[in-house]
Every structure is written in structure tokens, then in C-alpha cells.
Amino acid sequence: MLFRSKLVAVLFTLTLSALVVAQRATPGSTVIRGAQLADGTGAPLRPADLRIVGDRITEVGTISPRDGEQVIDATGLVVAPGAIDAHNHSTDGFDADPDAVSQTSQGLTTLLVGQDGSSPFPLSDYLARRTASPAAVNIAVLVGHATIRRQVMGNDFRRPATQAEIARMEALVEQEMRSGAVGLSSGLEYEVGSYASTEEVVGLARAAALHGGFYISHIRDEADKSMDAIREALAIGEKAKIPVQITHIKLGTVGVWHRAPEVIAMINAARARGVDVTADIYPYLAWQSNLKVLVPDKQYTNPASVKEALDDVGGGHNVQFTRLPQHPQYVGKRLDEAAKAEGLSEVDFFIRIVDEGEVGIIGHTMIADDMRAFMQQPWTMIASDGGINNNHPRGAGTFPRVLGPIVRDEQWLTLPDAVRKMTSMPATRLRLTDRGRVAPGMKADLMIFNPATVADRSTFEQPRLPATGMAYVFVNGRPVWTDGHATGERPGVLLRR
Predict the structure, then answer these.
(1) Domains plus CATH for the chain?
(2) pLDDT for the residue numbered 28
(3) Which of 129, 258, 438, 466 could pair with 39 in a Cys bridge, judged by C-beta atoms 3.0 to 4.6 Å apart?
């Protein structure tokens, strides 16, 4: 009996020890307590704790921390999936800033690069370089139509492509998709892409579709021919049987203001007949591009064409220089100011500078009514069209501007819907099944912010000022932004199709 009693005691002790061990923290585990949860689906906010183990969320609910676990008190804060930027221009920015400070300070955890028809080539080399030098954020890459066009046509691109050339382009798109691209981008308003026929783009889009990709387009015109350009994008998606995204949707000149209802009706009709079409938008009433984009007929030295272009944007006062290689003293100034200083008319100054290298501009040519109408559509997500070291405030401020002023002050969106538009919605478009939502088993890409203070600080005069109100940002379970600074962690991975 004595032996039996001792055995029972030993077994009880061993069982108790096992239970104690089971309650201890898994190495690297973190508990976030006291937050309001915006889970990415658009569901109402609710109180919830989170447990992170390794790179994944393992529990959501009421959680008691275990011995040794890191605990983050998120009382008064909102925890949400990390933001996914479906239009980002940081392709080469990681070399200068692998911490991606202007991006992580906004809550961004995944960036989609290779936009507007321009991508690294060959993609395999770029992916190898990024694998060897990880960044703080996850990266997905598109194959660019213009890049492929230049590979096949060289400098002889100012014409329609032959069928043989299109076939070679399609083969290269398939090559890049097999290397890891997630879709095809185009910039049909820009020099190289603008010469392509619709059928050429359809062929390349079909090639991307064969590998599960989608098509995202800076459409052929965002001014007086916007309606035709949107119809073309829809036709490409429909003919190629590929999901299509109209990127940075806007009505960008005076002549098309207030036509948002017409665009919305067109897209809703396409969706009703089965076209998988979405759009993205940034929360600023100004766009960024190059000077030549103002003249659709490409008659850059024709005074009549230039005058028509400047009239279409409301005059030179609405054109602000971000890059002017031969006249750096006018960077930040408006075209009318610079012309006056040079003793020239706006038209003559335009003609003088148009071929003096790449002239970067910001066009202050949109209105809030159109932007609000587009942003409130269920098929529109938030994307920046910015990136690391961008010269437009959208590069450092897009997502906090939506979470703060747009939600809190303007009340254009609810907070849960705004979060959905920057998390699960782009994740669905990119077919990221383990990101974009907060739930057990999902990757621990998270942003934790103060809903009362989150806001952009970047301006057109100081476009790179980091946002405020973002308390923590996690990428794959590791903190990349805390207490207003980058941590130096670089846990980002490449996301391939």
C-alpha cells in the first residue's frame, strides 16, 4: 500500500509538472491584450486579445498570458490586419531603405510593385536579390507590359506590334509569371504602352491569366477620354477572362469633373455581367506623373496642343514641379510661377522644358465629390500609388489619412470598412489566403493604431514626413515599427503566385 501511495504521488507530481510546462510560453510568443479588433472582414469592432506564436496568429478571444510571454497592452488601440498596398512604387526603394520607414509607419506590411507597365527584368534576378537582402515588408511583383514591349521591340516601339512580336511578348509574360509574378500591369497613358493596341494587351493579359494572375492598369486616359479608357480596361478583362483592376481611379481634369456616377454605373454594369473588376484609390486631390502625360496627342511642341492641355487642367497654377533637372530652383513651384520668372508664357515655358530630361509634376486637378463617390463603392480598395522616398504626400500618408481624417473627421467610411478596403480586399485580389484577416492560423501581419490620433503628416511641401498614431506594426510575427521608429527587423518575404 505504501508503494502504491508513493506511485500515485509521483504520477500526480508528473502530471502537475506537465500541466505547468504546457502553460508556459512557446518561445517567441506574444499576447496583445485589451484592443478593439477590426478583423479585416468589415465586421463591427469588438474587444479581443491575440496570441502570436512564430509567424502566425494562434488565438483570438479572451487570453491569459503564460509565464514568459511578451505582453502588449493595447488598451484604447485598434488591432487590425497589416495594410496591403496594391499599387506601390518601391521596386528599387528597398536598396536605399530596407526598413521601408515611410511604408511601415503607415501600417503597411505587404507591397505590390512593378506598376504602370514597368517591372524588373528578368524577374528572377530581382527576386534573387530581394531574397538575399530581405526588407521589413512582404513584396509581391507584377510583370510590366511596357517592360516586355521594350524587350521585344527595343526603341522601335512607337507603332503597333506585329503578331509575331505579340507572340514573343506573350511568351515573356508567361516566363515572368512562372518566375513568380502575380499579374500583369500596364501604363497605357505613358510613352511605351500608349502605342499598344487593345488586342496586344488582351494577348498579354491572357498569358498572365493562364498562370492565375490578374490585370491592373493605369488606363489610357484619365482626362477627357476617361470613359473610353475605362471601357477599354473592362473589355481587356472580359476578352482575356482575367480579373481586372482600374488603378488609382480618378477623374483628373476639369472637363470630366462630376462624372463619377457615370463611371460607377459603367463598372456596376460590367460586374453584373460577370466581369471581375475592382479599383483602387488614394485620398488626395492631386496626382503625380510626368509633364508629357498632359498632352495626349504627344505634340509636345505644338502651341495649340500644349494650350489645350494646360486649359484642361485649369491652367499652369495647377501644375507643380517635383523634378526639373535643368531648372532645380523651380522644384516645388507651380508652372505659372516658373514661366513668369522666366519672362515666358505658360505655353512657351512648357515647350522649352518638355524635353529637358524627365520633368516630374503633381497635378492639382481633382475634386472631393468624385473621390468620395469612388471611395465609397464596395469594389474600391485603398492603395497609395506611392512608395519609399516618394515626392507626393500619398507615399507616406495614404493609409493613416484614410484611417484618420477620412474615417474620423469626414466620415466617408466606417473604420471596419476602411480596414477591409486596405486588408482583406487587396489580399483577395492577390489571392493571399493567409493574410488580410485576423483569425487563428493567419500570418501575423498586424497594425495596431490609436483611432483618435492616427493621421498623415506628409504635405506637398514636405511629402516624406512619417504618419502619427501607428503604435505597432508586425510582419510575419515580428515587430518592424514600435514607438515611432523602425525596429531594424526585416522579416518580409516574397509572395509569389
Answers:
(1) 82-285+364-431 (3.20.20.140), 289-362 (no CATH)
(2) 76
(3) 438
